[in-house]
Batch of 2 targets.
Target 1
Amino acid sequence: MYTLDASAIVALEKCLVKKEFFKNDFLLSEAKVCKELYFLEKGALRGFYNIDGKEVTHWFGFESDFVTSFHSFITGEPSVENIQMLEYSICWAIEKETLEQLYNSHPSIERLVRIAYEKYYIRLEERYVNAQFKNATQLYEDLLASNPHIINRVSLGYIASYLGISQETLSRIRSKH
Amino acid sequence: MYTLDASAIVALEKCLVKKEFFKNDFLLSEAKVCKELYFLEKGALRGFYNIDGKEVTHWFGFESDFVTSFHSFITGEPSVENIQMLEYSICWAIEKETLEQLYNSHPSIERLVRIAYEKYYIRLEERYVNAQFKNATQLYEDLLASNPHIINRVSLGYIASYLGISQETLSRIRSKH
DNA sequence: CTTTGAATTTGACAAATGTCAAATACTAAT
DNA sequence: ATTAGTATTTGACATTTGTCAAATTCAAAG
């Protein structure tokens, strides 16, 4: 893991704003432009779309994750997704403009972000390939193997959605142990 | 689109190596560590996995794309994917170590890459959500709408694989206009 | 401990897509 | 133009997963 130099840490800390949220609070609602990036110190949350009247959870965030609607944050367009807390959570927020000023004054911060994007990119790529080429049972077993803690913190309806399968199918998979 | 300052362009050009490939040549074979990033000036290629004895194409590259096995390039682990040319192509290659030296001497190059990752991340995210929550017909129609040129340059078997559906299903969708 | 609402499971059936084999169409080289 | 090899389409059927409704289980509040 890349670590910032001391002066960058000082500069960054001056720009972070602590925000607390309770279960079910929204960090972001669709149609709003997301102008902040968040670091999730404690808690859990989900990103979801409303598609044809249904909520589709496509992503979870946990401790130490960077969180935002990346599409909205990067493009400046209104968000098409919602971010909602699954538990009481503590976030540190930074404005997009502030972050970009920090990039100019502290290249090590831009490097930290570049490396974070690399990590997140390959993580998403792996999920993508799995989702497309594994069946429902394999997806669930892989999740159990790689992120067993999710099962204990997230309700099964959200997990089914995250895996791209119906809740009933997930339930049937679980009933076969 | 972000543009480099003049000195960065000069420095970068000194580090790029031109490579030509013919149709069906491999840019990368699985099990090899991918230590280079490529800029595709001209041509087309595909990334694919061998899963259970079947080739699964999960990605295409065209003119102006950055190309590599991101997982292998970033982690330094052996590639699990192959990259193969679909046509005669011209690439510009840069070594990972060389690129990292350029990050240090020219922050604008690191910025260019950071912005490229942002773009690639949200592109992948969009594909991911589509793949998971649209049916085969919608996926094909979306592809026609957003990337009509792909149909003319890539064989249907690869496109079916890319969309995560069987070639027969794609053929039946097409027969209904 | 009981109640109430939410979460999860189960059953019956429908729909979408995959698989395998065969037929047809296309392409490039002779 | 002919041929050989490849790409694409079609048919018949199997399999997986989704949908809807109902039953059951769980969890929090009183």
Note: Strands of chain A lie at 17-21, 26-28, 36-42, 45-51, 54-61, 66-67, 82-85, 89-95.
Target 2
Amino acid sequence: MTLSEKAYSAIRRDIIQGVLAADQPLRMADLSARYDMGFSPLREALSRLQVERLVIAEALRGFRVAPLSIDEMQDAISTRILVESDALRLSIRHGNDDWSAGIVAALYALKLQVDRAASGAVGVWEIESRHYAFHRALLAACPSPWRLEFFERLYAATERYRIPILVASRTPSGSGRDIQGEHSALADSVLARDAETAVRLLADHYNKTALMIRDRMDAAA
Amino acid sequence: MTLSEKAYSAIRRDIIQGVLAADQPLRMADLSARYDMGFSPLREALSRLQVERLVIAEALRGFRVAPLSIDEMQDAISTRILVESDALRLSIRHGNDDWSAGIVAALYALKLQVDRAASGAVGVWEIESRHYAFHRALLAACPSPWRLEFFERLYAATERYRIPILVASRTPSGSGRDIQGEHSALADSVLARDAETAVRLLADHYNKTALMIRDRMDAAA
DNA sequence: GCAAGCAGGATTTTCGAAAATAATGGAATT
DNA sequence: AATTCCATTATTTTCGAAAATCCTGCTTGC
């Protein structure tokens, strides 16, 4: 693995997790010290992240972490619903037994980690990566690379907004919302190949998240 | 404008136009000579194009132009229909008079250039940029940056497949297809705010293009 | 005859410094 | 007091060379 790729993963994760705060300027000298490498691999990583809209670049004025806004969040979530609804229909149409088994496995692994988190010391990132794996498993049989690409992009964009909520309320159920239940119901309808119900549950799931994020951002402001 | 940005635009255009052929390896030394700059800005440009799927990177083995395939083309077009249909509905809902005027202007400018091309010496790129401008104008009132972003990405991806057709048959009507007529009808229904018709015409327009490309690629193979 | 191993060359990747540009702060002027 | 100008500093951007890695074709050993 090259340094460029390491820099890309590391900076990407740090932005999504909020370690590098929104709007924060990214000075080459600082990054070089923090990630222990020269300018070249860092600039390459930042160039890639710029296309993904996780960083903003201004010519001769360097890079900074992309800002967060309610409008952008709402846009990302509504676009997610558009793209993932279609991808989920395709996935349900094309999925085989391996696909079904993958969903069951991912849901179970997520539940294990959430339970573990409720009772103590598990990092947010460990839950988050299984949450991603679950949603990715639902779409695993979608035969369209472009739709999956857009899913990845939008997942990363919305993850930035969800992380602060997870950090605040370590027990996801503490928000008066049964997220694991939503995931189960969604998985059930997908496994039953009931595309219409699945798409409806998926949209509900995301819209509820959008509402929670919006409340929190309003409260913060 | 920095060299990085120049490199990005130049390489991007050369890939889309086919000046840099599909699957062709992109050697740093060659690129450095061709674009008259050092490695750093070139690598940054290539990193960005990698995210856009116009180039493929393999660690320690450099970059190459992304390959073309019928499957990828079909996928890009079907995803375009998904995204642009939705974006077009939103645009129709939100568009004001400036938006309408922009569509009329773009359609007219495109027609001028197509007529000019039929009677002689106008480059493919001059038509192509107005074709892009027309489709962009239709979506100009769409308030969703993410949908517009995906439109840009998919437009670039499909443009690579369309260019060889345009080069072969310099008069677009030579293909037994009245493309200008399709554009007019599409613009009319959009200006009349008839979203259902517009979305249908848009999908037809793209599916016809997909068929033409498919025929040509089958013939070539 | 054929596979494995190894030099030599080609190529990518990375670094550190130089060049170019922007930001800062103070002095001079209105 | 406010503004413009200039010098200084801070920062980004770019280059050219060094380091690391991969590819090629030969040799060696079986």
Note: Residues 2-4, 37-41, 60-61 of chain A lie near DNA strand C (CB under 10 Å from a C1').
